[in-house]
Amino acid sequence: MEKLFRAHLEKIITLTDEEFEYIKSHFSVMNFKRRDFLVRKGEKVTYVFWVISGLLKLNYVDDADKNHVVAFAMEDWWEGDYYAFFNQSSATMSLQALEDTQVLCMTLDSYNTLCREFHKMAYFFLEKANKGHISSQQRILELISTNAKERYDKLLNRYPVLFQRVSHTLIASYLGVTRETLSRLTAQ
Amino acid sequence: MEKLFRAHLEKIITLTDEEFEYIKSHFSVMNFKRRDFLVRKGEKVTYVFWVISGLLKLNYVDDADKNHVVAFAMEDWWEGDYYAFFNQSSATMSLQALEDTQVLCMTLDSYNTLCREFHKMAYFFLEKANKGHISSQQRILELISTNAKERYDKLLNRYPVLFQRVSHTLIASYLGVTRETLSRLTAQ
DNA sequence: TGATAATTGTGAGATTTGTCACGATTAATA
DNA sequence: TATTAATCGTGACAAATCTCACAATTATCA
Q1: Domain Cyclic nucleotide-binding, which positions (chains A, B) (predicted)?
Q2: Residues of B with CB under 8 A from a CB of A
């Protein structure tokens, strides 16, 4: 696992053994069972997570009590309620394990310390944030410019493995349509 | 203008006069007339922009030749084709002035230099990227969980001034609906 | 100012998507 | 393994949105 995390960091920055040890000391490992909540709506958000193994869903419940999958997070992905994390406020969304999942977690204090005392990590997070911002913008583009079928095809093409691990109901929710609509689109 | 930009930076970081001069030297001022393109689809992206005065739209043309407003940018906002900028590739979108507009522009070299040699700026951009990521995620949430009328109301509520400066056609495009649909929604 | 372009509203009908309901199948777990 | 829960497909109908068309109004700028 440590090797995986180090490899993850070294895709963007280079590290000595000592530097990696220093970084590692700011993270802790946590284990969750399928269906466990890593973040619960309304409760204070203490961590963001890096997925070692398993699968997470970030879920939003709207005013009409409908669920919406905002994001999935697989191995090697970061996830969390970033808004609540950075504002140290209570969660607007929930983060739940869809499989037994092991994560590294980081507090805001650790984040700030790492950024302040070790500028390589600030650069690492900057790169991550930029990429996250860009991919969010591309998802917005997809949502306003393509229909559900095209979004389905694109997702299947990019993350085929997701379709073996996640129910169609959740895929539909992520795509912004009902499961019935998705079922009909894919029947053809 | 310089004061505005300094105030913009100092919302996040503190600066001495010398530091601000150093930062400023990495930006240049450019002026655009209404309808001018700051970024043209297909052409190499050299800059990202900070709007001093005026108004921009970020526009995407899909495979069916339909236009989609990805974002507006008013005074005090950053905008650009970030994907193409960071990858130094050709533009996937266009950025066009909706009013006569004055901007500060920054090259990727300047960005990298600023981040490397002046860590306060890396932190500034990190904060901006995080906030951009979060607000994109919130827009995704809106797109998958609310109908056009709710999105319209929310936008009107947050940026009332936008409705005095931008045509309904463009607002509709930003909201992901046709102008006819928006016209009918707001007639009631 | 006068010609031209852009914007807006609205009707009619097609298309897409949602809602609710039901039964069949598969997966989870006590 | 027996029971319960989750998932999936589909029919029937409702609601939302799109498409195309046309005319009226407003803005632009040569």
Answers
A1: 31-117
A2: 60, 62, 66, 68, 70-71, 82-83, 86, 115, 119, 122-123, 125-126, 129-130, 132-134, 136-141, 143-146, 173, 176
